[in-house]
Specification:
Tetracycline Repressor, domain 2, two-stranded parallel ribbon, elongated, 2 domains, 341 residues
Length: 341
């Protein structure tokens, strides 16, 4: 077994680097195989082929088609399944023989082992499409009912019923999710800088929203150079450690000093509330930063980085809780509410 990597530019890596044409040659030569040649393949289930509920066997041709679709996906272009749906929609608008043949061509262009999934129907799989692409007078799938104009009409009704169901679902969600914005702002990402500034520059951008950005503020009767200074100073159990962290010359020194200090026994339970309070202090005491934060609208804020714990940062779907990003969104909403509260 080996991993096969597909890249947007068409490059393919699997024990070497090639492209789709080269992968085809590897498959033909046996350098790459889609299944274990020594494994016994179980016989196909008994039953009529036209209404089969299982996918076609994976073949070299089908595998190449799936790889091509993956390249299209990486480039934001329609896959063979997308193009099939485009043809279905055209047939719905104008159910002519010419458009039916376009559906047939698009359906057959889908890798055979992927066709049962194209409609997303757990019960009927791709049977309606099999019926539609069968020419008049021919048996569906070779052993099914004979295709008729009445069958085509029933397939058309199947798609129209599906559209009505989707519309009802959208209407239902519109009620349940009525508080969602019609068009949300695009997400923004706050990247960590290797060497953050020690003093605030004359002009700044979204970098100023990060915890290591130098914006002195007061909290609990103490001045802190950055949010990180405040966070790690308050985390320290001993007052002398608090003062040493608070007065550290750089963010890195404050972070390391705080990480080496003995932490408050309740820190795991109160740290999110402390971070929220520090962010509120930072932005309410710096109107220009509050304006910058609220200018992001309702955008999701992704707060990345490796210096701070995954508890605070966004590191993808498998790691990172992005709590700083979430708290920034909360403070932004509070600032937007303003005097209306």
């Amino acid at each position: 077994m080996d991993d096969l990597f597909v890249f947007a530019d068409g490059a393919i890596r699997c024990g070497g680097v090639t492209d789709v044409q080269g992968l085809g040659r590897w498959l033909e030569s046996g350098k790459v195989a889609v299944s274990d040649p020594e494994q016994v393949v179980p016989a196909a289930a008994e039953g009529p082929r036209w209404s089969a509920r299982y996918p076609e066997p994976l073949t070299n041709e089908g595998f190449l088609g799936e790889v091509r679709d993956q390249i299209e996906t990486l480039n934001g272009r329609p896959t063979s399944s997308d193009l099939c749906w485009d043809a279905i929609r055209a047939y719905q608008r104008e159910p002519t023989e010419a458009n039916r043949l376009l559906v047939k061509a698009a359906y057959l262009a889908i890798p055979a082992h992927r066709r049962v999934y194209v409609l997303g129907d757990m019960d009927r799989q791709d049977v309606p499409l099999r019926q539609l692409v069968t020419d008049l007078g021919q048996p569906v799938g070779g052993d099914g009912p004979i295709a008729t104009t009445e069958m085509y009409r029933e397939v058309l009704e199947y798609f129209e019923a599906g559209d009505r169901g989707e519309e009802r679902e959208r209407e239902g969600y519109a009620v349940l999710h009525a508080d969602d914005p019609v068009q949300g702002s695009p997400a923004i990402t706050l990247h960590e800088r290797l060497n953050p500034p020690v003093e605030a520059p004359a002009t700044f951008d979204l970098e100023a929203l990060r915890n290591e950005f130098p914006t002195p503020f007061s909290y609990g009767g103490q001045m802190y150079p950055t949010v990180l200074h405040g966070y790690w100073a308050i985390a320290a159990a001993d007052r002398s450690d608090h003062d040493r962290v608070r007065t550290a010359a750089t963010v890195r020194e404050a972070h390391e000093a705080g990480g080496c200090a003995e932490l408050r026994p309740d820190w795991a339970h109160v740290r999110v509330a402390v971070m929220a309070a520090l962010l509120r202090a930072k932005f309410t005491q710096h109107p220009e930063l509050a304006e910058l934060l609220t200018s992001t609208g309702d955008a999701r804020i992704s707060y990345t980085g490796i210096s701070e714990s995954p508890h605070w940062t966004d590191r993808g779907p498998r790691e990172g809780r992005n709590w700083v990003g979430r708290l920034l969104e909360l403070v932004r909403a509070e600032l937007s509410l303003g005097d209306q509260a």
